């Protein structure tokens, strides 16, 4: 049926054909041509927008992590577990996935005025001098882990903090050391680790003073690790302020990070347990949250607020609701406080744990034999609990916990999906951790491939896969299920594959 018959009224007084009918048909034909052409143009624009959006996301990740191009390396014949020790923390070591790397040494800007990324106050001042060192401030790096979340890339003997998982030429703990060194110097930078990791940490951090490497006999979660360091440092310097920062987190934006830590130290000196709240970039269900309370009104720390409450990892709907309010920040597990205040909180909320840690600290620097004896007696009976649950949450209810909101980039690299976000890639292509020459793909989008065995990994027509090919183990899963890898580790252990863990 013609368009004219559909739209031209029919009556006995009007002809069904003629000049008018032809002109109407021609008009609608032109309209249809325009509509079809517009549809084609819109489809093309949508395609271009999609490509631009994907390219922008890739570029943002690269800029955020300081990566401007993917570093390619010749074939490595080893699993790449160890990052060889540098001659100094300021010299970049070889990556376990790269043949060589030329990353610039850590630079300390000469200015003491740093632009703040926090909305209300555009500029804050470092009162500690141009080298950023903060007198009386000690850094504690808890370095633990069972190597389950990035298995089989990470193992019990080589957890993720010992690996260069971002192709930057430094392991995560080396990057953490580099980041915090300007605030303290090596003399006031301590690491808490288990006996199985002490040797590797000493090799990767040759400037770490041995009396600042605190070996805990077994894992007791973050409260015992941080509490042990606090108790020891309190014996050495009762006026010390300590900051605890995990060994295996990724941080981008050094100026913003140092700005937030410096502000947290100023607040801690006023008698608070201070955490640093990360501005959430998406409604994550894998992180805990901090709810912002009233501003503290401290002139030297204008961004600091009370912590209204801590929230456990929420479901997706709750996380989205948190972000919509603008009053929540991710809880990154960074805490800054006076050692005496932390121990006072511990005595109040966990007196038995506090008593045990103080017994150990009392003999720590006296005699190694006596230290080991007390550790054998005390450590097995200590409560296994996180610092959040032990002191931060109950203290927040009494108005004794503060938060410094910050906007530097942060990720705890909790699974292969989050690791993939930190690596560069072409649009719609999988991320490659290692030698990209060992990976061939055809019609493959997203995902991450770790060619750790040295053999070729070929993928055809699969999207968002996680493929970790090590000399002794092959893992294949999806990015959506990557948080469940630790279930496989448990199953491997129960099935007698303990040697692969």
Automatic annotation (TrEMBL):
Keywords: Coiled coil, Transferase. The keyword Magnesium does not apply. One of its GO terms (biological process) is GDP-mannose biosynthetic process. Residues 35-62 form a coiled coil. Residues 447-491 form the MannoseP isomerase/GMP-like beta-helix domain. One of its GO terms (molecular function) is mannose-1-phosphate guanylyltransferase (GTP) activity. Pfam families: ManC_GMP_beta-helix, NTP_transferase. This is Nucleotide-diphospho-sugar transferase. Residues 1-20, 70-90 are annotated as: Disordered. InterPro entries: GMPP_N, ManC/GMP-like_b-helix, Mannose-6P_isomerase_type2, NTP_transferase_dom, Nucleotide-diphossugar_trans. Gene3D superfamilies: Spore Coat Polysaccharide Biosynthesis Protein SpsA, Chain A. Residues 140-424 form the Nucleotidyl transferase domain.
């Amino acid at each position: 049926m013609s368009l004219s018959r559909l739209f031209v009224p029919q009556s006995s007084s009007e002809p069904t054909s003629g000049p008018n009918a032809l002109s109407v048909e021609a008009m609608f034909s032109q309209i249809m041509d325009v509509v079809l052409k517009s549809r084609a143009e819109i489809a093309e624009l949508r395609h271009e927008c999609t490509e631009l959006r994907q390219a922008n996301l890739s570029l943002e990740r690269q800029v955020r992590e300081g990566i401007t191009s993917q570093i390619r390396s010749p074939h490595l014949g080893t699993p790449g577990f160890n990052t060889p020790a540098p001659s100094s923390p300021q010299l970049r070591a070889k990556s376990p996935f790269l043949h060589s790397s030329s990353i610039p040494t850590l630079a300390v800007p000469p200015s003491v005025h740093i632009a703040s990324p926090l909305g209300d106050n555009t500029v804050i001042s470092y009162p500690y001098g141009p080298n950023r060192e903060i007198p009386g401030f000690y850094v504690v790096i808890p370095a633990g882990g069972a190597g389950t979340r990035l298995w089989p890339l990470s193992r019990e003997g080589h957890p993720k903090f010992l690996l260069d998982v971002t192709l930057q030429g430094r392991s995560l703990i080396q990057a953490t050391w580099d980041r915090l060194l300007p605030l303290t110097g090596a003399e006031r930078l301590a690491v808490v680790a288990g006996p199985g990791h002490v040797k590797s940490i000493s090799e990767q951090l040759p400037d770490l003073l041995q009396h600042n490497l605190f070996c805990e006999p077994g894992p007791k979660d973050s409260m015992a690790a941080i509490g042990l360091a606090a108790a020891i440092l309190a014996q050495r310097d009762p006026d010390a302020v300590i900051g605890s920062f995990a060994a295996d987190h990724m941080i981008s934006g050094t100026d913003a990070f140092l700005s937030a830590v410096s502000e947290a130290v100023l607040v801690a000196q006023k008698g608070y347990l201070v955490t640093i709240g990360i501005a959430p970039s998406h409604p994550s269900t894998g992180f805990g949250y901090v709810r912002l309370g009233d501003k503290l009104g401290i002139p030297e720390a204008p961004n600091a607020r009370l912590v209204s409450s801590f929230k456990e990892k929420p479901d997706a709907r709750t996380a989205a609701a948190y972000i919509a309010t603008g009053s929540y920040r991710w809880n990154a597990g960074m805490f800054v406080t006076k050692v005496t205040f932390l121990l006072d909180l511990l005595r109040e909320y966990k007196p038995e744990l506090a008593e045990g840690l103080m017994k150990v600290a009392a003999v720590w620097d006296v005699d190694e034999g006596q230290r080991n004896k007390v550790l054998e007696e005390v450590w097995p009976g200590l409560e296994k609990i996180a610092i959040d649950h032990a002191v931060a949450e109950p203290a927040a209810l009494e108005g004794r916990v503060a938060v410094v909101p910050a906007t530097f980039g942060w990720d705890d690299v909790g699974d292969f999906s989050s690791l993939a976000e930190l690596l560069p890639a072409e649009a719609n292509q999988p991320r490659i951790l290692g030698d990209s020459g060992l990976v061939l793909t055809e019609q493959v989008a997203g995902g991450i491939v770790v060619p750790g065995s040295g053999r070729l990994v070929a993928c055809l027509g699969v999207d968002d896969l996680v493929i970790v090919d090590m000399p002794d183990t092959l893992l294949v899963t999806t990015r959506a299920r990557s948080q469940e890898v630790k279930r496989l580790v448990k199953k491997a252990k129960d099935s007698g594959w303990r040697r692969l863990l």
